[in-house]
Structures
1.
Amino acid sequence: MRLKSLNALITGAAQGIGRSVALAMAREGAGICIADINIDKAGELVEEILKYGVKCIALKIDVSNQESVASAFGSFTKEFERLDILVNNAGITRDSLAIRMKEDDWDLVLDINLKGTFLCSRESIKIMSKQRSGKIINISSVVAFSGNPGQVNYSASKAGVIGMTKTLAKEYAARGIRINAVAPGFIQTAMTDALPEKVKEEMKNAIPLREFGLPEDVANACVFLASKDSDYITGQAIHVNGGMYM
Ligand code: NAP
């Protein structure tokens, strides 16, 4: 019960990595807010999480929209007395080679992955500053560090998340807020299931541990960063990638 009596808001938690993070944090005793654009799917997860005996609600949020973010955090503070953990997990891909990339696909990926992380962090920091404590965990990606052909928008957004993590960690350390990132490699979710089998096989061969990660592998790193065990760590990125990038 490493997160007993703490509350966590996790964006994009209706499925995939965010869902695993929500379940893992609930198992450790945290109250959970599943904040997702897909409110129906988020509602289904609430039922599952309530079985752990913790408080759990679902809120509709579009992390790229300032009004939606402000409204979701307003609803959160009516339900929960404190916000101890924010996980900026909502993210999308719109892949293509740079010369063919549509401006709309650039904008959408940057708006959700980078601006969304900023908007949710800003709302959380207002609450956490008053508390003089809090943990923010930003889900970046291995491609922020390694680059990846076909993902100029996505890799730029995730590298931006790393820069934001370090700057906010420096700005708010004095308020007791720790801000770190997790950079997953190839994790088995809907986002990666869509890739052709040949690409998946090539990627597996490029991973020293020779297997894809599971959402639970990312969730374990998030629980560590949310817990007291990581209290002297801020402004860092933990790589969860089977050795794919060192
Ligand atoms: P996923 O299965 O596609 O889940 C993402 C969730 O975010 C979905 O429920 C999605 O709803 C929601 N979402 C999309 N746009 C949103 C918005 N504007 N506001 C709020 N919620 C929104 O993705 P995943 O694979 O679990 O990835 C989670 C995070 O890990 C992302 O940031 C991703 O970039 C990162 N990551 C993933 C991998 C990997 O291998 N899977 C590797 C490195 C990093 P809809 O389905 O309705 O759009």
2.
Amino acid sequence: MSSHYVLPTKVPTIVFPGSGDAARHLALMIDSLIRQNSSAGRATVLGLPTGSTPVGLYRELIRLHREAGLDFSRVVTFNLDEYYPMRPDDPHSYRFWMQETFFNHINVPPRNTHVPDGTIRAEDAEEYCQGYEEKIGRAGGIDLQVLGIGRTGHIGFNEPGSARHSRTRLVTLDPVTRRDAAGSFFGEENVPHQALTMGVGTILEARKVVLLAFGEHKAPIVRRAIEGPIGDAVPASYLQQHPDATFLLDRAAATGRAGGVSPLI
Ligand code: F6R
């Protein structure tokens, strides 16, 4: 097992030598949560992100499914967000990405997976989003919410300005977020301007939250999220108010460089 250390920050933060170590740590946490719940006859409800950050986590969970019999048949998933407008079979959609990266490789029942529907009519968005929240409620609430963090400080697509009590809704993406997504859309002009996202309030209701952040480009915003003032300038800072939130970082995200002393200490 790799060496890791815990930082005395406002949100408990564990720093791993590399992103693969953090991904394996979280995969094992999820593994034991699912096994515990399944042996007690309970479902496990996971809140899930897309993006570059969780790829190693999904790879590790697939490995545990194949090699260690991790059973997803009683797992229910809710994704954080989806671009809007967006068809689920569009290769740019988060639904497509989740299928390709994770769902197609495990035994989660398709009806148990939920990704916001980017094909709804804008005028139906409010009702649809309320329905998404109700589905989370009917599933028993989210046991473990996995998050990434955007360079704007967003969690889900809750960009700066998002309120602490915001719920699932249609939002406008920050220009920085659209720029960061430009590569996968072959140009910023092709990136949708809007998205459906769980709200900050929705995320904070999860019983446990784990945020993953890797790479030195995330270091400045991670630092503001875990040590800076709590408020809508950095929506991830609201996690300081969650009773069971943890950040898992690689060394680069903790230090701002690929080694050396952490500016977080
Ligand atoms: C994606 C999501 C976003 C990403 C964030 C980081 O479902 O909710 O908040 O987690 O933009 O993206 P990556 O991991 O690509 O740096």
